[in-house]
Amino acid sequence: MSTNDILFLAEFDAGQATRSALELAAGAAALAAQSGGEAVALAYGPGAADGAAGLGAHGAARCVVLGDERRPAVVHAPAATAVAREGALALLAPATPNGRDLAAALVGSLGLPAFGPVRAVRLVDGTLETEQATLQGAVITTSRPNEGAPSPSVVLVLANTFTPIEGGTGSAAVSTAPTDDGESGLARATIAESQPAEATVVNLEEATVIVAGGRGVGSQEGFGVLQELADVLGGAVGASRAAADAGWVPYQLQIGQTGKVVKPSLYIAVGISGAIQHRVGMQSAEHVIAINRDPDAPIGEFADLFVVGDLFGVVPALTDELRRRRGE
Ligand SMILES: Cc1cc2nc3c(=O)[nH]c(=O)nc-3n(C[C@H](O)[C@H](O)[C@H](O)COP(=O)(O)OP(=O)(O)OC[C@H]3O[C@@H](n4cnc5c(N)ncnc54)[C@H](O)[C@@H]3O)c2cc1C
């Protein structure tokens, strides 16, 4: 391991690298190309052992397998800590529940500098620099580790910050992390019971298109109209807190200050006024389309395209038009 290397957490599920793993592989490869080090994956989850070498096609030079079983991600903290201790410039973690758990354990056990969730990370004159929305999105802050701070810096990265490398052919050199000696107690943690997520719940943090509904949608049935549009776009449905509080959708779909922070390529806000507490969860979206019948709704101030109209007219018409263009 070299102090110029860029480590990244690569989660596997059902035998596949997750979207966040592929995004971070691309980000780590770009940073490593500048730092003169290598992109090194720390892979865990079902399928990690078999899929580790495949991360080479997405930018990883090497891959250390922390574990291949379905277990709480935090059990891999001692192994990840041992790898991080060998030295690296940065460790990129996805801003997902597992990524946050592991990142927090690393920061806590090694006293490392922590950043995030960030919407950009780069090297400036050899120094790591991150970009993050603060003060509820009113200010974009850039941060760097203090001079002499221990490394690696641990950086929690929002989904869609990097674009996966597709069509690559490389293969990563694979090694296996030494098993934990059990002293930490974490090694004994297992999943006692797991329940399948409700069909409507997806990993919003990884969605590239989100169709989000608010109080204006009016009912659980109303969300069916949004789901149809999301299906046509290959996207996911999200919601404001007002919609979640009303019980029309589960809380896992809530976006905002007390919900999820998302960064899709396209965010379609339907019947959402654009309160600051909602905005902080979606303002990093690349493109925002708002559909609202109130021409003075605050969301119109920061949407790229503001459609003024009744959602029950606009959304089905948009879905039909998209289907028509696809010849469906
Ligand atoms: C501490 C705290 C934390 C919070 N955290 C969050 C959070 O995480 N996420 C969050 O979203 N909120 C959060 N809130 C709540 C937030 O302040 C707003 O109350 C909430 O975002 C409003 O949701 P909304 O936009 O769906 O509803 P509203 O503000 O009521 O807006 C509904 C919109 O729908 C439009 N509309 C109505 N009918 C139609 C129609 N038929 N066609 C088209 N448009 C229509 C209206 O013109 C209106 O603009 C938080 C508040 C506090 C105090």
Q: Would you give an account of this structure?
A:
With 328 residues, this protein is of the alpha/beta class. It folds into 2 domains: 6-188, 3-Layer(aba) Sandwich (Rossmann fold); 204-325, Rossmann fold, CATH 3.40.50.1220. Helices cover 25% and strands 25% of the residues. It contains 8 helices and 16 strands. The strands form 3 sheets. Strands 1, 2, 3, 4, 5, 6, 10 and 11 form an 8-stranded mixed beta sheet that branches. The chain has a 5-stranded parallel beta sheet with strand order 13-12-14-15-16. Strands 7-8-9 form a 3-stranded antiparallel beta sheet. Helix 7 (276-282) links the parallel strand 14 and strand 15. Helix 3 (77-85) crosses helix 4 and helix 5 packs parallel to helix 8 (311-325). The longest helix has 17 residues, at 19-35. The radius of gyration is 21 Å and the shape is globular. The chain starts with 5 loop residues before the first strand and ends with a helix. The model has no long low-confidence stretch (mean pLDDT 90).
Any chance you could write out the topology, listing elements then pairs?
Blueprint: E1 6-13, E2 16-17, H1 19-35, E3 39-44, H2 48-51, E4 62-67, H3 77-85, E5 90-94, H4 97-110, E6 114-118, E7 120-124, E8 127-134, E9 139-143, E10 153-157, E11 173-176, E12 209-213, H5 222-233, E13 236-239, H6 241-245, E14 266-270, H7 276-282, E15 287-292, E16 305-308, H8 311-325
Helix pairs in contact: 3-4, 5-8
